[in-house]
Amino acid sequence: MRKVKIAASLLGLLLSGAAYGQQGRDIAAGQGIVPYRLEVTFSKTVHLIFPSAVKYVDLGSTDIIAGKSDGVENVVRVKAAVEGFSEETNFSVITSDGTFYSFIVVYADQPALLNINMDQWKAGEHPVAGGGGVQVAELGTEDPALVRKVMYTIYQRNRRDVKHIGSREFGMTALLRGIYVHRDLLFLHISLANASNVPFDVDFIRFRIVDKKVAKRTAQQETTIEPVRTYSALTRIEGQSSGRMVYAFGKITIPDDKFLEVEIYEKDGSRHQRFHIENADLVAARLIERLKK
Fold first, then answer.
1. Residue ranges making up the domain that contains 174
2. Residue 251 — pLDDT band, cuts 50, 70, 90?
3. pLDDT 10s digits, 255-271
4. Are both 151 and 277 inside the same structural domain?
5. Phi, psi at residue 286, to the nearest 5°?
């Protein structure tokens, strides 16, 4: 009877070992989370560009420093906190799309890569330097490279799709040439022409939402909005010349009793320009298609 019990115990151990071995094979076959192997050094920073915003970073030891890069949503910077550490360590990242990333980190005097596109690494491709779309906080999920391409397209096409908004004073003409939309971003194409022989130096350009019927404005009656990107910002318009600029904003909608006011101020001068954009004009924004390269 005792021999039978021993035999049964041995059989149980063998079965447990087989099950454990199968679990290990399952993990090795890709059913577990396989970590990426990353080289870091003390004197340089490695940047990881993720396909979506980073929500969580956890370090395995104090041998490394890792965290989100300032001002961007989907970039993590990593470097060695201790020069020449010998034991490998790890860190983990969770992104807003729910993806969990695990990294094994080793020290190298000269890391093979300093800028890594995680989209390529996830796809099994060799990660290359650069090439990833950095998600800047003020642009939300929009790729800055794509936003720049949209603005470049508006500038190069140089169409005048809006013909009723602008101002003309003191030999200066400011025109709103077009209002465009791409996903959640709004673009204003503005031109400034100088018909005089005196150069016009741009001090600043201000955008604010104001009440239509209030002559004397107060802080409670106006809201200043800032562009998230500017293409071909103008600082000076020579005499008998002109220039154009494109501004990108987050989504803007305004009530019917307000409008968007655009003010262009001259530095050390008084030839200021001002025009207004109605909500009806904003909601009639045109789509951008066939971007220029």
1. 146-287
2. confident
3. 888 999 999 999 999 99
4. yes
5. -90, 150
Model pTM above 0.90: no
Distances 106 to 36, 60, 291 between C-alpha atoms, Å: 11, 12, 42
Does the residue 11 lie in any domain?
no
Tokens (6 digits) for 43: 């004197």
CA–CA distance, 68 with 219 (Å, rounded to integer):
35
Residues 6 or more apart from 179 whose CB is under 8 A from it?
A: 161, 162, 186, 187, 188, 189, 277, 281, 282, 284, 285, 286
Q: Domain check: are 173 and 264 in the same one? A: yes
As for how many domains the chain has, the answer is 2
Tokens of 145: 């490279």
pLDDT digits (tens, 9 = 90+) for 175-220: 999 999 998 899 999 999 999 999 999 999 999 999 987 655 554 5
CB distance 75 to 50 below 8 Å = yes
Task: Indicate the DSSP class of residue 233.
Answer: -
What token pair was written down for 160?
């005048």
Structure tokens at 18: 């087989």
Residues 162 and 130 in one domain: no
Contact 263, 273 (CB under 8 A): yes
